[in-house]
Specification:
The protein is about 40% helix and about 15% strand. The protein is α/β, with parallel strands linked by helices. It has a 7-stranded parallel sheet, with helices on both faces. It comes from Streptomyces cremeus.
Amino acid sequence: MLLVTGATGTVGREVLRRLPELAPGLPVRVMAREPARVSGAPASAEIVRGNFTDARSLAGALRGVRRVLLLSVPSAAGDAVFLREAAAAGVRHVVKLSAAAVADEGADDLITRWQRRNEQLLVDSGLAWTLLRPRAFMSNTLSWARSIRTDNTVRALYGTSLNACVDPRDVAEVAVRVLAGAEHEKAEHEGMAYQLTGPEALSAVDRTRQLAQLLGRALRFEELDVEQARTALTARYSAEIAGALVESAERGRAGGKSEVDGTAPALLGRPAGDFRTWAADHLGAFRSG
């Protein structure tokens, strides 16, 4: 039995879509705080209610589970309760979605510290583990959709900073391949931390240019200063999270996110998806009318 958490998130939704093709016949249970929001799960999947900090709900969700895909939002609470209940339930292997910044010694923002703590909790849990450390998701570009639709403008901080962003669909496929192969390839995946990037490092200006070409209309890039960016982020997140995101952007400006890694293609058995392909597949979000 495989338990998938975070199934309503960016990667979780894609994992559910890929399971029937890449892991046919694998018994699947899906845990969500709001089961009604789960879509695209295999027809045979069991969908249960669960909360990362509610031990009772976790005990039920984890009963009979051997492998877990752990997709949790980094927070001060961390994954401690979940991992304790997983160990008690006899879970054998946890594949955790983390972040590439964890391996960067220069990264010390709040979100990265939370991610590091969660990784260490897993490593210390006694469970077999695999860590997936993706760079920023290409789908983060969807945050530009409204301004592109309304006034053909992209507004962002440090527009020339390079980021080897990754297609979240590739991250999902890697997760499924690791989980599906875990019973037969233990030595290959257990105790491994996989950095996952796209095939090239692009800036916000580069992505704006590619979107303009695909849309067939001119787009303007407007550089935000730090305070403008912080104000915009605070409209969506808490002040502490907004501050962490600004710190992360500073690291990107210094080149900390530009390295292209070959791990994703090796695990996928094909080239990693590029931004143009991702954008073409999601172009409707950026079109007016």
